[in-house]
Amino acid sequence: MKKSLLLATALFLVCNTSFARSDDVPSSFSGTWVNDNIRSTWSDGHYPTGKMKLEMTVNIIGDHIVYHSVNSTLKGKPPMVIDFDATMDGKLYALSGSGRYDTVRVRRLENNRIEILEMKNDDLIVGAIWTLEDGDKTLMRWGIGKSPEGKSKAYQEFFTRQ
User: Fold this and answer.
1) Which of 43, 41, 69 is nearest to 158 (CA)?
2) For 38-59, what is each residue's pLDDT tens digit?
């Protein structure tokens, strides 16, 4: 009986501490971020170094995230603007501005990380983990995305706080 009580207590502590978080940690992600072309890479080697222009504005209060991005990489075409407003609870929320995905799932992870899943028709199109580096001056997102042609690639993108 004592062993099962100890095991249950240990399991409870492990489960609850692995998701322990400070309410002010995610707010460190809040701000305006501009991509760093030199440090960013795609696994297929075709990252548009020197050409990519992506600015993200993130506002996080508690477990609520408001995201706005403007991708003005393609010259002569209107910029792609993506917006979502979600609670970081792993549930689906509407996302606007992309033909590739229309919903997002967001959840906080341990160690000051956030998971962002962009989906369309219950199909995962882009999955990313966001972390902060360099004393919260750099946002790094690592993920895997599926192109419109159905090919997947990994990416590591760095953003500098403005």
Assistant:
1) 41
2) 999 999 998 887 789 999 999 9
Q: d(Cα 47, Cα 34) in Å, to the nearest integer?
A: 16
pTM of the entire structure?
Answer: 0.82
**Half-sphere exposure at residue 84, Cβ-oriented, CA atoms within 13 angstroms:** 21
Distance from CA of residue 92 to its chain's centroid? 14
SS (H, E, C) 35-103: ECCCCCEECCCCCCCCCCCEEEEEEEECCEEEEEEEECCCCCCCCEEEEEEEECEEEEEEEECCCCCCE
Report the greatest alpha carbon distance in the chain: 72
CA dist list (Å): 43 to 54, 59, 152: 19, 29, 9
Grouping H, G, I as helix, E, B as strand and the rest as coil, residue 122 is coil
